[in-house]
Amino acid sequence: MAVKKQLALTKPIHTVRSWSARKSIPAEYWHGFSVKGLATLEELAEAAALRLAANDDTRSSEAA
């Protein structure tokens, strides 16, 4: 079953697909992912931290 249906998301499918493309789920939806067993809160937080760190590294290299 698609994640959108599992979580009963009211967002348009294009919004949900953009999360996938960006590899970024807005924090207000983390609980639903955790409850459904799709990811733990720790996994989601770690992924967000890694993404932020990668963005910081990109900005640092652009400034050099």
Give a verbal description of the structure.
The chain has helices at residues 3-6, 13-22, 30-35, 41-63. The chain has 64 residues and is mainly α. It has a domain at 37-64. The radius of gyration is 14 Å and the shape is flat.
Question: What does the secondary structure layout of this molecule look like, with pairings?
Answer:
Blueprint: H1 3-6, H2 13-22, H3 30-35, H4 41-63
Task: Give a short summary of the structure.
This protein has helices at 3-6, 13-22, 30-35, 41-63. By secondary structure, the chain is mainly α.
What's the main sheet like? none
| Percent of residues in β-strands | under 5%
Count of DSSP-assigned helices = 4
Number of strands: 0
Structural class: mainly alpha
Radius of gyration: 14 Å
Uncertain segments of ≥5 residues (pLDDT<50)? none
The N- to C-terminal Cα distance equals 46 Å
Helix content: 55-70%
Global morphology: flat
Mean pLDDT: 82
**Helix/strand order:** HHHH
What are the key terms here?
0% strand; 64 residues
